Amino acid sequence: MSELSAWTPGESSGLQINRGSQCSPEEVPTAASKPGHSLGVLHASYSVSHRVGSWWNIASRWHQWNRQILKDVSLYVESGQIMCILGSSGSGKTTLLDAMSGRLWRMGTLLGDVCVNGQALRRDQFQDCFSYVLQSDTLLSSLTVRETLRYTALLAIRGGSPSYIQKKVEAVMAELSLSHVADRLIGNYHFGGLSNGERRRVSIAAQLLRDPSIMLFDEPTTGLDCMTANQIIVLLAELARRDRIVILTIHQPRSELFQLFDKIAILSYGELVFCGTPVEMLDFFNGCGYPCPEHSNPFDFYIQNDVLKGAYQDRVGLLYQFVGAMPYTGMLNAVNLFPVLRAVSDQESQDGLYQKWQMLLAYVLHVLPFSIIATMIFSSLCYW
């Protein structure tokens, strides 16, 4: 990162946005001259290395396969704006969000700076500035909406009184139109519960409890029908208008959403092809020789085209199978529950709510006694 130019409020050069090889860079004023918050990504590059061959092949131990995922990406967005990052699968959209939120430090090689209000962030400052809603909803199906948000608020709002936390939960549910389903179970695919759109709003509400100034969303419309997806995008646009920065990735938005975005960034193979307003996007590609046909979705046209490159034999056998399988019966619930809890703990630990070892200790202390008791009960019945 020392090789990159630092971006500070005192400098007059500003941030340069990469508009591709056929378009000159555009200077952006620094955060000191603008009200509210600002976010700048400066020359972000990310690469991963992988050893070639099997682990036991000594000859291939020194040979590595390198892949450049992000290539000198620079962005700038201010509070009150919503930015959409477009690109085909594998273009680096999610990796760019991970780089913004500071979740790539332990993997690969990351170069560049992420600046908030003109100041480059340190590693310990990312969790205080960003909230990140993942593509999949990591929610516990056995809790209601109010319980989910209340438990999240207890972890996120340290030192808050019970009355303050309750008011905060109710306010967030009202803001996201979840009050009418506050006492309904989250549910899952097996026994129903909330709809996909309502689950997505619960995931957004869990992040809003921390009053984030910058919100990141990884493909928030995945798995939703057209009408629900439009409602989610409209909701995110409203959140941005309330003095927040909203950045989302989306694979193939509908044409009706074109004017909802303040800025659009297009990635292709890890490189930033364009970044600007929707009107500037049309003018930019028209100038590059790719005019969008009338009555066509600009998103579809610029992305999909080449613009971007046993049976038991006797009682003894039955008894053997019965006794041998019973000790594992008490563990089945734990095996079924642990992957869900692990997904929740991964997200919440990255949000800074607690450490992973704390979740593991609580899980062991809570589940292990029940597994032992269940095993003893079933096994004793078999032997008796």
UniProtKB/TrEMBL annotation:
GO molecular function: ABC-type transporter activity; ATP binding; ATP hydrolysis activity
Cell compartments where the protein resides: Membrane
Presence of keyword Nucleus: no
Ranges of residues in domain ABC transporter: 50-294
Pfam families given in the database record: ABC2_membrane, ABC_tran
Parts of the chain that traverse the membrane: 318-340, 360-383
Keywords for this protein: ATP-binding, Membrane, Nucleotide-binding, Transmembrane, Transmembrane helix, Transport
GO BP terms in the entry: cholesterol efflux; cholesterol homeostasis
Membrane topology label: Multi-pass membrane protein
Region (Disordered) location: 1-34
GO cellular component, one term: apical plasma membrane
Biased composition (Polar residues): 10-24
Superkingdom, taxonomy of origin: Eukaryota
PANTHER family found in the cross-reference section: ABC TRANSPORTER G FAMILY MEMBER 28, ATP-BINDING CASSETTE SUB-FAMILY G MEMBER 5
Family stated for the protein in its record: Belongs to the ABC transporter superfamily. ABCG family. Eye pigment precursor importer (TC 3.A.1.204) subfamily.
Name under which the protein is recorded: ATP-binding cassette sub-family G member 5
Source organism of the structure: Pteropus alecto (Black flying fox)
Phylogenetic placement of the source organism: Eukaryota, Metazoa, Chordata, Craniata, Vertebrata
